[in-house]
Design a protein that fits this description.
Helix 5 packs across helix 10. The strands form 4 sheets. Strands 11, 12, 13, 14, 15, 16, 17 and 18 form an 8-stranded antiparallel β-sheet that branches. It is globular, with a radius of gyration of 23 Å. By secondary structure, it is of the alpha+beta class. It has 2 domains: 109 residues, Rieske [2Fe-2S] iron-sulphur domain (Rieske Iron-sulfur Protein, 3-layer Sandwich), CATH 2.102.10; 271 residues, Naphthalene 1,2-dioxygenase Alpha Subunit, Chain A, domain 1 (Alpha-Beta Complex). The structure holds FE2/S2 (inorganic) cluster and fe (ii) ion. FE2/S2 (inorganic) cluster binds next to loops.
Length: 448
């Protein structure tokens, strides 16, 4: 590094208009949409699908589907549009191991074939049914979630067996939040640790952390007082690793090691004690202007402590499928209370969770933020890295590459070996060599 570079570091550049469009849009035929269609996606909490229960309408990557569970526990996942003339199959009867459309009674079996066509003469109904193509897709249940693969005419890749995907449901706690803006905005807020001591200065005293009020207040104090970390990154076949490194007062170094798994998983730098809960955030696009974030807390050793879960999710809507219900919108400025701000509250969003504050900020940028207007600083390096590595992967696929960033075609890795971590980095150790499965005492500030 030259002296000039040291005093004038090179700051990340904003995206061009075309790059911003390519990053954000997810419909069929878009650059990012085609990349995302190469992945398995979580589409709904598994518990939402009851045997023989109502089909659930799914928006994913700008397209509409339904999913349902049959009496014998098989899962169906297909286009919402009835293959006959387009009635919504979300309205259909769920019976006899398939869906029966309300309009003319066509029956589509869970295997993805039209099985009965009562509107055709019996003599030719079977032959007619055989000729109808049903757009039915590969679907899986794992980790308390229903997963689907909606790439057309493409073989699904290996299922991502992240460590939570092999746990029983009582060791997983899932809350989903819906927000009205582009999925990348949601993901950027989760990856951005520079805002924690600002935006969440007040809400962290009451939400997010478990362990009681005193623990929370101490965490906030540490956040405010902590020296700015230096960040290091390592792009890998599965995504990238981020180390936020801080000097501790006793001369040691603390590393908050986050894993990002493409296309949208953030493994938060949680506790390095094996028996503790750890959390990941999955940002799934519904379409260009709506997305869901799945906050999935899991414990590899024991059932989730329900009391701790309640504490973690204080001030959120109890609906596990939308903890952000009733958040408001720009027309009422999300119910911001200026008097509370005068009295010292960081945001004026009283009785709200820190994740609500994130959603409000993301939505306040508009449905698709204009990244050409950004002025990025050194703390935005991870944001820039995320944007550019995703774009690079999507452009590579468009240009014919067979290596898909985030999958085994890009290089060997173990999905189950991906885990965030917060710990003291032993002397003379490169953080890249740290084993995230080693059982050591956690260090403070496991959030950035
Ligand atoms: S539209 Fe579904 S059976 Fe006619
Ligand atoms: Fe946040």
């Amino acid at each position: 590094m030259t002296y000039q570079q040291a005093i004038e570091p090179e700051y990340p550049k904003p995206l061009t208009h075309q790059e911003n469009e390519d990053l954000a849009r997810v419909g069929p035929g878009t650059v990012m949409g085609e990349y995302l269609r190469r992945f398995w996606h979580p589409v709904v909490r598994a518990a939402k699908l009851e045997p023989n229960g109502a089909p659930v309408r799914i928006r994913l990557l700008g397209e509409l589907f339904v999913t349902y569970r049959t009496k014998s526990n098989r899962i169906g996942f297909l286009r919402e549009r009835c293959p006959h003339r387009g009635a919504s199959l979300a309205l259909a009867h769920n019976s006899g191991e398939g869906l029966r459309c309300l309009f003319h009674g066509w029956k589509i079996g869970v295997g993805g074939k039209v099985e009965q066509v009562p509107t055709e003469p019996p003599a030719c109904a079977a032959k007619f049914a055989e000729g109808v193509k049903v757009r039915h897709y590969p679907v899986r249940e794992a980790g308390g979630l229903i997963w689907a693969f909606v790439g057309e005419g493409i073989e699904p890749p290996e299922f991502p067996d992240y460590e939570f995907n092999s746990l029983p449901e009582d060791q997983i706690d899932i809350r989903v939040g819906l927000f009205h803006c582009n999925w990348v905005q949601g993901m950027e807020a989760v990856l951005d640790s520079a805002h924690l001591g600002q935006l969440h200065r007040s809400s962290f005293k009451e939400t997010f952390f478990t362990g009681g009020k005193e623990v929370r207040e101490a965490q906030v104090q540490r956040l405010i007082e902590a020296p700015a970390p230096s960040f290091e990154f390592d792009v890998t076949p599965f995504g990238f690793r981020e180390a936020a490194i801080r000097d501790l007062s006793d001369g040691r170094k603390q590393g908050n090691l986050r894993m990002f798994a493409a296309p949208y998983y953030s493994f938060l730098p949680g506790s390095s004690r094996q028996s503790d809960d750890r959390t990941i955030c999955i940002s799934v696009p519904f379409d260009d202007e709506w997305a869901a974030q799945y906050f999935l807390t899991y414990n590899t050793h024991q059932p989730i402590d329900q009391q701790a879960s309640k504490e973690r999710w204080r001030y959120t809507d109890p609906d596990p499928d939308n903890f952000a219900a009733g958040l408001g919108d720009v027309s009422n400025l999300w119910g911001q209370n200026r008097d509370a701000m005068q009295a010292g509250h960081a945001t004026g969003f009283i009785g709200r969770h820190s994740f609500h504050e994130d959603f409000i900020i993301q939505e306040s940028m508009g449905p698709i933020t204009d990244r050409t207007q950004d002025n990025l600083g050194s703390s935005d390096t991870i944001i820039d890295l995320t944007r550019r590595t995703l774009l690079k992967a999507a452009y590579a696929l468009r240009d014919g590459s067979t290596e898909i960033w985030g999958q085994k075609s890009a290089g060997d890795f173990d999905y189950a070996g991906i885990r965030g971590n917060a710990r003291v980095i032993p002397a003379n150790t490169d953080w890249r060599d740290i084993d995230p499965f080693e059982d050591v005492e956690p260090v403070f500030l496991a959030t950035s």
